[in-house]
Write a structure and sequence with these properties.
It is built from 11 helices and 12 strands. By secondary structure, it is α+β, with helices and mostly antiparallel strands.
């Protein structure tokens, strides 16, 4: 079983934290006073949820329409991130996250870890997977590669978060309610950290440790049990977790910040967060769309070694980006 960094929720929480950091930084930098400041104890003064939204929220606007992708890339004010989950020196999760300040919409595109990419001088079978690039070229190499795949779209920032941070955030929020579809049971003492998953079925509130187990689960020992529809079922379970997480996190921004900040690595600085902060206030789970890089799995033989790769579809990728960037070709 692969490590927790494979799970989509890691990258999603990374992006949420980036958003929340921006919101909070804006408020602190501008020294904005909350309503009824003299009437409540200090803990309640620091609750910046709905009060901040009322004071600072900017109403979304209709998006700009572009005639082609090149024009959209040049003129759009979208902010693009890569969000990463790590397995040692390999990027086991890569998400391209694109935020439109005008509409407050966020598009999250999952880049499969086995995506085929051939770099000059890196010719082995393992080196032709996108998850190997970080070990050789670091974050900048990953940013350049994702930009290359995505029609030279600029990647402005990166965000990374480890699973320990997720555990602390969930515990700080008092747990996350999920509906466990079946008895999840799996053991692997050699995993890092070791896996001893045992979660009963049904609707329940999971603490940080159990949440990690829920998100790491793929199938039982000896390939027994697991989701009937494979990865699709696992993705649905993760999406349910995400929705529940957003509901709690949006009302407890400071908890997310204080519990998760030390586990986040990012190139976002105060200027960045102040710039994005006010524009992101008011975002809800309905403003997020989850997508996957178009393509298909394929076995290829490289230097006498056969591995499974994800071959992305360049034409369909362009169509996906045109949708994200609101490109609409003029009528003939």
């Amino acid at each position: 079983m692969r490590t927790f960094s494979k799970v989509f929720i890691v990258s999603f929480i990374c992006f949420l934290i980036a958003i929340f950091i921006g919101s909070y930084s804006y408020v602190k930098e501008k020294d904005i006073k909350l309503e009824s400041e003299q009437s409540y104890p200090i803990a309640e003064k620091m609750d910046i949820g709905k009060t901040i939204v009322k004071k600072l929220e900017i109403a979304p606007k209709e998006p700009e329409i572009y005639s082609n992708l090149k024009e959209a890339i040049e003129k759009s004010n979208r902010v693009n991130f890569i969000v990463l989950g790590m397995e040692d020196v390999r990027t086991d999760t890569i998400i391209f996250a694109s935020f439109c300040p005008d509409t407050k919409k966020v598009s999250l595109v999952n880049i499969p870890r086995d995506t085929y990419i051939h770099r000059k001088g890196y010719n082995t079978a393992e080196q032709r997977k996108i998850n190997s690039i970080y070990g050789d070229h670091g974050v900048e190499g990953v940013k350049k590669t994702i930009s290359h795949i995505l029609e030279d779209i600029p990647i402005h920032h990166y965000v990374m978060l480890d699973y320990k941070g997720v555990e602390k955030i969930v515990d700080g929020l008092g747990g996350i309610e999920v509906d466990v579809p079946f008895h999840m049971k799996y053991k692997d003492p050699t995993a890092k950290p070791p896996l001893h998953i045992d979660i009963s079925p049904g609707k329940q509130t999971l603490d940080g440790k159990k949440s990690i187990e829920f998100l790491r689960y793929r199938k039982g020992n000896n390939n027994k049990g697991g989701y009937i529809d494979g990865d699709l079922g696992r993705i649905k379970a993760q999406q349910g977790f995400i929705q529940s997480f957003i509901g709690k996190a949006s009302d407890n921004i400071l908890t997310v910040l204080t519990k998760g900040f030390s586990h986040v690595k990012t190139d976002l600085n105060l200027v960045d967060t102040l710039s994005y902060g006010r524009k992101t206030i008011g975002i809800t789970n309905e403003d997020f769309e989850t997508l996957t890089l178009p393509g298909k799995a394929e076995f290829r033989k490289i230097q006498k070694k056969v591995l499974s790769y994800f071959i992305y579809d360049k034409k369909e990728t362009t169509k996906l980006l045109e949708k994200i960037y609101n490109v609409k070709s003029p009528n003939p």
